[in-house]
Amino acid sequence: MTGIDGKVVAITGAGSGIGEASALLLASRGAKLVLGARRSDRLEALVARIEANGGTAVWTTTDVRRRGDLADLVAYACGHYGALDVLVSNAGIGPISPFDELRVEDWDQMIDVNFRGVLYGIAAALPVFRKQSRGQFVNVVSTAGLRIVPNQAVYAATKNAVRTVSEGLRQEAGPDLRVTMISPGYVATEFADSVTSPTVKSQAPAVDFALSPDDIARAVAFAIEQPSNVDVGDIVVRPTAQS
């Protein structure tokens, strides 16, 4: 399959930000969506919005920290639509902090959501993709993994772990599967809401040049719409003003 029309796409973290924007754009181009996130009210409202605009989408509550939820998301796609063409692993959190604050629980949460959640998605979707002899993983990473800065080391480490796994998976994937990384820079999302450190909150600079989630959604769509023999490995999308 080429293009987006008719492809079955599952998206984690679809309740807001990049996931929501990607769902709206892909639905407008004919994708059949399965949307996962923890906040069911957000998903229900998003599906209603997509359907009101003539799109096709279903939702299921998904916590990527639970392997069973990812298995259920993929099974729901296959049961409802008969296939799964793309898994967009977008769910992520960023409770960044200085090491000296020893916010170990926050470190654990980032590992569980940002990294382990991607692995659980791979474990759920890879057997399906192999059986179909087609499929694409789209993993949302971050420019934080390209330029390490204070307070973001653990967050960047989780994103670089995904980068490493994605490249290894690409090399093992063979000719029928595709693996794409999307690395956004500053984006106007709810990312800052997950920050628990008073130090980081007090020092956070005002950023008036952040990209819209729609800007990242277009990158996701670009990777998906390529011919099946074209594997877009990594897309970095930054504001022009970002250093």
Highlighted features:
7-stranded parallel sheet; 243 residues; 7 helices; 7 strands; single chain; alpha/beta; globular
Protein described:
The chain is of the alpha/beta class and 243 residues long. Helix content is 45%, strand content 16%. The protein has a seven-stranded parallel sheet, with helices on both faces. β4, α4 and β5 form a beta-alpha-beta unit. α1 crosses α7, α3 packs parallel to α4 and α4 runs parallel beside α5. The termini are far apart. The mean pLDDT is 95.
Task: Detail the topology: elements first, then pairings.
Layout: E1 8-12, H1 17-28, E2 32-37, H2 40-52, E3 56-61, H3 67-81, E4 86-89, H4 104-132, E5 135-140, H5 153-173, E6 177-184, H6 198-203, H7 213-225, E7 234-237
Parallel strand pairs: 1-2, 1-4, 2-3, 4-5, 5-6, 6-7
Helix pairs in contact: 1-7, 3-4, 4-5
In short:
The protein has helices at 17-28, 40-52, 67-81, 104-132, 153-173, 198-203, 213-225; strands at residues 8-12, 32-37, 56-61, 86-89, 135-140, 177-184, 234-237. By secondary structure, the chain is an alpha/beta fold. The longest helix is centred in the middle third of the chain and has 29 residues, at 104-132.
Taking all Cα atoms into account, the compactness measure Rg is 17 Å
Give a quick account of the main beta sheet: strands, pairing sense, barrel closure.
Answer: 7 strands, parallel
Count all strands and give the number.
7
* Count of DSSP-assigned helices: 7
